[in-house]
Structure formats: C-alpha cells, structure tokens
C-alpha cells in the first residue's frame, strides 16, 4: 500500500513540477516530507502512511523514541491539568490511538477524582481510530460518555457535529504537521473552543543546540527508517515521518501562526508561547481563545 502511496507521490511531484513550469497554472503545492506535492494530494498520501502504520503505531513509537514519547505526553497532559477546577469537555484532534485522551481521563480521575471530564477523539484515519477503540475497550472508560471516536478532518470539522464555542480544551499531539494547512487547523480549533479556553499542541520542533541537532539528525535519518523496515516492514512511512518533522515551522513561527488564528500566547521564548522538551526535539505550544 505504501509503495502505491509513494508511486503516487512521485507522480504528483512530476505533475507538480510540470505545473510550476506553466505560468498559466494556479495549482497550489505543499510538502509531503521533503517532496513537494499538489495540496489536494497530501491528505490521501498521509492517510496511506497512517493506514500502513496503524497496527504497529504504538510499538513503533516506543521503539523509535525509546519510550520517551510517553514522558513527553505525560508532561503535556500534566501541564494542562485537566479537571483541576471542574470537569472539562475536551477534543483531541489527530488523536490516533488515543494516547492523549487516555492520559487526560486518567489525570482528571487520579488527581481530582473527576469522572465527568470527557474527550472526543477525532482523526481522519479510520484504522488509527479502530486501534484506539480496541485499546479503550480494556479501560474503565469504555461505553461511558467520557470518550467517543469521530472520523473527521482537522481542517474542516463538520460544524453540525463540532459546534462553535463548545470545548474547554483542544489538544493535538504529533498531528498538526501531517495536515495540509496548519492555518486551517488552527482556525477550526479557534472556532470550536469556548472563549477563554485553551489550545494545546505537542509537536516535534527545532533543536537549538547545534551538537544535539546533529546527533538527533544522524539518529533520526538513519535509525528511524531502519527500525521502520525491521519492525514494521515499512521504510517509506518512517522516512516520511522524519522528513515531515524537519519541514515543520520553528517555535516562533508556529507561535505566530497560533496568534494569527486569534489566540493569545505568552512571549516569543521558551517558557512563554512554548515550552521546549529535550532541547526542542519536541515542544508544547499553548494559546488561549480571546
Ligand atoms: C503521529 S499520529 C499521532 C497520534 C496521537 N495524537 C499520538 O500522539 O499518539 C498523527 C495522526 O494524525 C492523523 N491525521 C493526519 N492528518 C489529519 C487530518 N487532516 N485531520 C485529522 N487527523 C489527521 C493521522 O491519521 C494520525 O492518526
């Protein structure tokens, strides 16, 4: 399936190059990892990647990050303190197999004895959601109003289902870089949040220290696709995932995009609009709907 996706990407690149050569054409392009593809193709290419990795996604996350993604996700959710003041209605977009949703519900219950906080998990990919549903069946949240799964595009959440000014907390973890239009995702986040509510994004980011950056590049470009081949039989998807990290905007650029969508953020520094984790390998951005 992935081979098909990448053949398709190559075709798209060819079409795109052709298009760029033509001054009459107005085709818009975007990045798919290091490739440039027509905007309308990215969604299906990304879908093919996650169709391919869905069944091995959790295992591969542990293998490629040595489990560190768990610490980052714990830090992310702890920093948001869901349930501290009162139960919250959350939407976890690009929620995949439910890693963030589960942490939100556990945090609210374990820290604040809150069994009313709820999370709506939204993802464009049915197979990732199916893995999440399988996993939630083993938890106390299964068949409760605290969790639900929805197949939808972060860039255009159906307004009848995801109404304006509805949620207290919007989370998106390692998902926004896969979306074709980051501003469209942010605009939707702003629409569905209540005034005063929080947007929070955990995403791979830019490493400040040049030595750490070189080591991290060396590791990610050599080891991650290799682990993808060995453990999941899929090099291309993991190559894309590494490349897509490098294409994501820097911390100040992303903070500006969040402000452009109408959120108020802290100052343009680590500890303000964002908090770096592990020197910027990942970072948490937050904004409050004005
Ligand atoms: C790397 S996974 C992250 C999953 C989960 N949030 C986590 O942290 O483990 C990225 C997810 O983004 C989803 N995704 C990609 N593009 C999307 C879009 N336009 N709308 C909604 N979900 C999308 C993928 O299907 C995939 O499940």
UniProtKB/TrEMBL annotation:
<keyword id="KW-0999">Mitochondrion inner membrane</keyword>
<feature type="binding site">
    <location>
        <position position="97"/>
    </location>
    <ligand>
        <name>S-adenosyl-L-methionine</name>
    </ligand>
</feature>
<protein>
    <recommendedName>
        <fullName>2-methoxy-6-polyprenyl-1,4-benzoquinol methylase, mitochondrial</fullName>
        <ecNumber>2.1.1.201</ecNumber>
    </recommendedName>
</protein>
<comment type="function">
    <text>Methyltransferase required for the conversion of 2-polyprenyl-6-methoxy-1,4-benzoquinol (DDMQH2) to 2-polyprenyl-3-methyl-6-methoxy-1,4-benzoquinol (DMQH2).</text>
</comment>
<dbReference type="GO" id="GO:0031314">
    <property type="term" value="C:extrinsic component of mitochondrial inner membrane"/>
</dbReference>
<comment type="pathway">
    <text>Cofactor biosynthesis; ubiquinone biosynthesis.</text>
</comment>
<dbReference type="Pfam" id="PF01209">
    <property type="entry name" value="Ubie_methyltran"/>
</dbReference>
<keyword id="KW-0472">Membrane</keyword>
<comment type="similarity">
    <text>Belongs to the class I-like SAM-binding methyltransferase superfamily. MenG/UbiE family.</text>
</comment>
<keyword id="KW-0831">Ubiquinone biosynthesis</keyword>
<feature type="binding site">
    <location>
        <position position="123"/>
    </location>
    <ligand>
        <name>S-adenosyl-L-methionine</name>
    </ligand>
</feature>
<feature type="binding site">
    <location>
        <begin position="153"/>
        <end position="154"/>
    </location>
    <ligand>
        <name>S-adenosyl-L-methionine</name>
    </ligand>
</feature>
<keyword id="KW-0489">Methyltransferase</keyword>
<comment type="subunit">
    <text>Component of a multi-subunit COQ enzyme complex, composed of at least COQ3, COQ4, COQ5, COQ6, COQ7 and COQ9.</text>
</comment>
<dbReference type="InterPro" id="IPR023576">
    <property type="entry name" value="UbiE/COQ5_MeTrFase_CS"/>
</dbReference>
<dbReference type="InterPro" id="IPR004033">
    <property type="entry name" value="UbiE/COQ5_MeTrFase"/>
</dbReference>
<dbReference type="GO" id="GO:0032259">
    <property type="term" value="P:methylation"/>
</dbReference>
<keyword id="KW-0808">Transferase</keyword>
<dbReference type="GO" id="GO:0008425">
    <property type="term" value="F:2-methoxy-6-polyprenyl-1,4-benzoquinol methyltransferase activity"/>
</dbReference>
<keyword id="KW-0496">Mitochondrion</keyword>
<dbReference type="InterPro" id="IPR029063">
    <property type="entry name" value="SAM-dependent_MTases_sf"/>
</dbReference>
<keyword id="KW-0949">S-adenosyl-L-methionine</keyword>
């Amino acid at each position: 399936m992935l081979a098909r996706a990448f053949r398709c990407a190559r075709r798209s690149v060819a079409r795109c190059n052709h298009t760029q050569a033509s001054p009459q054409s107005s085709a818009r392009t975007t990045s798919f990892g290091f490739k440039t593809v027509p905007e309308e193709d990215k969604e299906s290419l990304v879908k093919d990647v996650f169709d391919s990795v869905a069944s091995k996604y959790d295992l591969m996350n542990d293998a490629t990050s040595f489990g560190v993604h768990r610490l980052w996700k714990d830090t992310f959710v702890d920093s948001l303190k869901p349930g501290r003041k009162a139960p919250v209605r959350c939407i976890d977009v690009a929620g995949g197999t439910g890693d963030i949703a589960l942490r939100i519900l556990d945090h609210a219950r374990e820290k604040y004895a809150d069994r009313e906080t709820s999370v709506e998990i939204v993802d464009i990919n049915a197979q990732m959601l199916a893995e999440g549903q399988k996993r939630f069946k083993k938890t106390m949240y299964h068949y409760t109003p605290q969790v639900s799964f929805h197949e939808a595009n972060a860039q255009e959440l159906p307004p009848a289902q995801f109404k304006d000014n509805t949620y207290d907390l919007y989370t998106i973890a390692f998902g926004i870089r896969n979306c074709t239009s980051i501003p469209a995702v942010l605009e939707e986040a702003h629409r569905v949040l209540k005034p005063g509510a929080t947007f929070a994004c955990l995403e791979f980011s830019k490493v400040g220290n040049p030595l750490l950056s070189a080591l991290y590049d060396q590791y990610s470009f050599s080891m991650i696709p290799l682990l993808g081949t060995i453990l999941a039989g899929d090099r291309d998807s993991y190559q894309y995932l590494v490349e897509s990290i490098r294409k994501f905007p820097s911390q100040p650029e992303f903070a500006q995009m969040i402000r452009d969508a109408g959120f108020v953020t802290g100052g343009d520094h680590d500890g303000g609009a964002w908090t770096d984790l592990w020197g910027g390998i990942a970072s948490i951005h937050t904004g409050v709907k004005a």
